[in-house]
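Quick log. Single chain, no ligands specified.
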Amino acid sequence: MQHKIINSKSYRETIKAGRKYAESVNPGDVIGLKGELGTGKTQFVKGVCEYFNVNGIVNSPTFLIVNEYNGLKSGINKTVQIHHFDLYRVKFKEELDTLGFYEFINKDSICLIEWCELVSENYDVNLKIVNFEYGKGKNERIIRY
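-> predicted structure:
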């Protein structure tokens, strides 16, 4: 059940929405990001990573499939591993099995999965879903979670 709708008018607002969303994210969470190409999934991930104080460049792992970042959970001063998947080019469950997909999911890490349909259809994982859509304006995006 979705509770929040955000109307983002720029990529900066989408990053800010990711930072705000990250306040409710904890190690062990697996988050599925659904939406067409260009709807802001990676910008949202940048905001999540900013919240967790990730240093370095955060970009889409389209050809690598997964990027790994080291973050820090403020308040508890605990290091957290962030796994950012982009499954756009992955078509079969066996490809994820070969990557050792389940090994990325654990109580000390956060998984953010763009194009998460393959995971939701083939794995017993409690996905928290964030949906992204184009808005009416050129740079407008609708984010629902």
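The chain is about 30% helix and 30% strand.
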